[in-house]
Amino acid sequence: MAVKEKTEGNEETLEAVEVEWSTVDNELHLLQILCGTRPIGISKYFQMACIVEKLAMNLNKEVTSKGVWDHLASLYDLKKLDEHETIPFPNEEMDFVLSTEEYGELMESKFKDVESKKTIKKEKEEIKKEKVPETHPNQLKRKL
């Protein structure tokens, strides 16, 4: 994303320049943006894109997300903040179980089908073993 610096009648495309966080104005712009947009939780990368865009508009400079991430990491423990962020929906893994009241008959018939297929497969394997006599490598003769 190229941000153009506005001067009197001129517009120049700027390359990404490291933001000087030692100035109060730059720090203040970042903190004002952080009041409405927090780069934590499940949407942290989307939020960071918004932060970078707003910061670039306020500073009239190209800002990189890596530079902002590095600066925020120097100020805050981002991993801890991420852990404390609540998720708006339950995120626990649990096994899915069909209701036996509604699907009990269907599950039972499916189980019987699977079991019958297994027994048929075992019977076929036993028949194959009976038909093919075992031969030892010594008994094999090469025919030319």
Automatic annotation (TrEMBL):
GO biological process: chromatin organization; regulation of transcription by RNA polymerase II
Skewed-composition ranges (Basic and acidic residues): 124-134
Alphabetical UniProt keywords: Chromatin regulator, Nucleus, Transcription, Transcription regulation
Places the protein is found: Nucleus
Pfam family for this entry, one: Eaf7
GO CC, alphabetical: NuA4 histone acetyltransferase complex; nucleus
Annotated segments matching region Disordered: 124-144
Family in the record: Belongs to the EAF7 family.
Protein name stated in the entry: Uncharacterized protein
Organism for this UniProt entry: Daphnia galeata
